[in-house]
Description:
It is built from 10 helices and no strands. By secondary structure, it is mostly helical.
Amino acid sequence: MTVDIVLWGFITRYLDLITAGGHSFVPTLLGAVLLWDFLTRVMQGVTMAFFEDVWSRNFLNLFATPLSISEYVTGLVISSIVTSAVGLLVMFLVAALVFGLSITTYSITAVPFLLVLFLFGIALGIAGSALVLRLGPSAEWFIWPVPALLSPFAAVFYPLSTLPAWMRGIAHLLPPSYVFEGLRQALAGGGFPLRSLAEGAVLCGIQMLLACWFFVRIFRYAVRTGLLARYSAESAA
């Protein structure tokens, strides 16, 4: 992730040099990279904690205890909070010290949008873990590229208006598209983007509930059909 910050930091510095009008690309491009990497780290914080239980052959042992599914998912979320917070701090320090990105550029506006990104990353991680639980350990390779596949639709670096109609339809289903559209509006002096925040937050809340429901549904299916035991055996093979 730090490599991404360094790479895009030099790209934004180059763009600042060759463009006229004194416009700075640091908050719009480098800030977007930082926020998207934060979302990616949040998602991977959940899935990595889940995968480590699989790799250590500890998954079946966990659910042989009185541990409830809600407690297990809460543990995944707490693990993601810790790892993503550390990652965000490191990335921001690099961006601030090397390329001059200042948190005051976004002010308090960024806080609720950051929360939306965090919750969407958690939802992706929970849904991805459920998918691997259903399909088996080998399916984990389908989960790693998910953020990269979603980024063209999320309008991370460009307005939604630049996308073709079919891509905009998908983008409107993704909370990050509202986050980045709203932050660009705020940086352009368009005031606090309350509508973008509200739409993104509502959509994110719905998807969070669906992800949790999906995980619980898959887990109960795995217990009922004996898939959980076969799953653990496959990871041990």
